[in-house]
Amino acid sequence: xxxxxxxxxxxxxxxxxxxxxxxxxxxxxxxxxxxxxxxxxxxxxxxxxxxxxxxxxxxxxxxxxxxxxxxxxxxxxxxxxxx
Length: 83
Description:
The relative contact order is 0.08. The chain starts with a helix and ends with a helix. The chain is rod-shaped and about 85 Å long. The longest helix is centred in the middle third of the chain and has 58 residues, at 2-59. Helix 1 runs antiparallel to helix 2 (65-81). It contains two helices and no strands. The chain has helices at residues 2-59, 65-81. By secondary structure, the chain is mostly helical. It has one domain.
């Protein structure tokens, strides 16, 4: 009888550890997935800002060297980050 109780006790430990591991893994995956969505949303927002600025500079080209440099940098960043 004692052996059966001990085996059940060990089985319960294994079951509880498996459940705990499943909960931890599920939580970790949920956090990872949420971060991926946040990163994608952030990237989309940056691309929209760059796109608006590029369009604005295309309609009204900058006149100063600093403005021309900024417009050029916006295009470079857009090509690197948004395509």
